[in-house]
Amino acid sequence: MKGQAVYPAAAALFAVAAASPSKTTCLLLIIYLLLLFIRRPHCFLPALVAALFFFVYFLIVDHHNKTSLSGGRHSLSVRFSAAPAIDGDRLHAAVQAGKERVQLRYTIRTAAEKEALRARLMPGTVCRLSGTLERPMPASNPYAFDYRRYLRRHRIHWLFLPEAIDLSACVRVRPTIIERLEAIREAGVRRIEARFPPEAAGIAAALIYGERRSLDEEVLSGYQRLGLIHLLAISGGHVTLLVGAALAAAIRFVTREAAVLALLVFLPMYAVLAGASPSVLRACATGMIVLAVQWKEGTIHPLDALSWTALALLVFDPYMVWDVGFQLSFLVTFALLAHVSVLTSARSMLQNLFQTALVAQLAALPILLYHFYEISVWSVGLNVFFVPWYSFVILPIAFLSAVFSFSPLIWLFSRLIELTDAVVRFFSVDYSFMLVLGRPGPWCLAGYLTAIAAAFLDWERGRLLRGLTAVAAATALQLAAPYVDPKGEVTVLDVGQGDCIYIELPYRKAVYLIDTGGTPEWAKEPWRKRSRPFAVGRDVVVPFLKAQGVRTLDQLILTHDDADHIGSAPEVLKAVRVREIVTSPGALPAVKAMARPFSVPMAAIVRGDRWKVGDAAFSVLHPEAGNNEDNNGSLVLLARLGRLTWLFAADIEEEAEQALIRAYPELRADVLKVAHHGSKTSTTEPFLRTVKPRAAIISVGRYNRYGHPSPEVLMRLKQQQAIIWRTDENGAIRYVYDENGGTFQVMKP
């Protein structure tokens, strides 16, 4: 029967994910096979065979995904298969080193060197380089991007950090076919960057070559937040347009069979030219399957073509299952094809566009929430406008402008992009209605999938409102989940050389953030500036809050006004609602100036202030009224959370510690957040003898220039027999508790 290949394809996808290993996916695979056995017995055996084959196949592939290299200093001959990415003073590229690929990362020293590297390091270049091999860093915070796992899934196990790139030790060898295509692609992107205005070059390069390096970061973020990022990805629409135009032109000169055969040869090359992302590979592979069947004068059901494409790509690279582009591309396309009878029954083009956007949004919802934690209220409506706008206006003009480089065309394209970007900024920044739901857990995901499947079935039966009610109910359950959860938590985030501590009380009675960390800004020459430099607030703190489903902070507690404690506060204030900011008296003027654009109530708190929420109690131990010092005037909090007492010592030094001991001679704490990142001027012996901590947490940056934590401090803590956790070595430290006790977890044991 036509359309039945989808069942073994789905089983194969489940099997690869289950072999990763994942207990939840194993259970889902078993449930899926049982449902097939009951409801589709004729599809059960093919699905079971596909599941067993791909389960074993992934285990074999994963077993052989190992490295033969070792860390340390090496001299390697590396081959550039694609032009390296250069952003400011950072160059990086995946290069071939013998039989292995390594990720090369290099800091450029001069502007002249940057231009020389850009000109010389083309696909097919081989260089002899000396440098160090290091293991990539794993994720150091909950929900954070795991760079080590990402590279391993691309069969890369090492970072190669060359001491220098001597171009005299580089030679251009005969490039492979793929390297030739990569060179053509790079030349095309550079041609666009040279001839188009900056605001239009990024969009044109993304639409034609699948290259987003020139895209403005704010615009790219806007497209992503509004659920429009698929418009900037080369996918089925592009390939359909290209194949249709090529066939229409070719059959005027050659037979249809010859034209189809030429396209079968051209599409794999186009996939490389377009960046070979999962969406590109899916579109090109599906197109090739359809063309091959037509070449043999046959027909194939669109669902079968999609399913055979999925199976072929899993054989090519089973790690694709974890690529968000792969997930969105296949799931949304499947939903559109499976729901085609409803879409074709639309009475108008506007209704068809709305229904198509709604199908895509419903299908993508679980994936978007899992990876990005939020959805835009505007998404469906904007897709109704943007899909035809891009399909019939932006995309054709982009191709014509790139091919002919006609100045009026480029001018028109640039003006249209300015208009489009203004609309994106309006809805993503000025009037951004984002519903932050957090990352759904396994059972929440299962609930969404069940509700969405029910919604599609109800839609087929003409009961769309009832179906949407089921999805709304699943969303409401996720929104309510934290408020019925009896567990609370304290998480000391790894923000480098800074402090950021997240506190959530059971049943989400209150959520607090103590400090925000901050990224120091050093003056740089213009050529060194990167398009998207790392920012603690944007890249660590805000994603963590959104993944937790936090829409409101009851208090943002800023201990003092050092940049490594409050530098990321503006990013937090932009992202979530803050009911109140509290800080120390000495920091109040600086905090007021920083927070003025956000109109948030704020107050200074001093020794003796306290509050209680449920069983949790907080007391301010320092500073005393009138203390306007910097480090020694920072806030010190004592909190009773679960069965443990926590002392958050901010950046106080010896003088403030002595004042604390005098004021509170019976001061005790189970857990000490060590002051001032482990500086030797803090955490003195008298202080430790008084507090007697059983565990100490040091928030400190890797390889920081201050030498924190001090060996003397570590020795004092060991003499106290305290368990020591450090964010530079252990990543984030998380304590999850309820009324019966709690457990500590570290990201990197």
The gist of it:
Helix content is 49%, strand content 17%.
Shape: globular
Biggest β-sheet description: 8 strands, mixed
Spans with pLDDT under 50 lasting ≥5 residues? none
Please give the share of residues in helix: 40-55%
How does the helix and strand content classify structurally? Answer: alpha/beta
SS summary, helix count: 27
Spatial arrangement of strands, main beta sheet: 17-16-14-12-11-10-25-26
How far apart, in Å, are the first and last alpha carbons?
A: 52 Å
User: How confident overall, as mean pLDDT?
Assistant: 92
DSSP strand tally: 26
Instruction: Please state roughly what percent of the residues sit in beta strands, choosing from under 5%, 5-15%, 15-25%, 25-35%, 35-45% or over 45%.
Output: 15-25%
As a whole number of angstroms, the C-alpha radius of gyration is 29 Å
Transmembrane segments: 12-38, 44-61, 231-254, 260-293, 328-346, 353-373, 385-404, 440-457
Keywords: Cell membrane, Membrane, Transmembrane, Transmembrane helix
Membrane topology: Multi-pass membrane protein
Pfam family, one: DUF4131
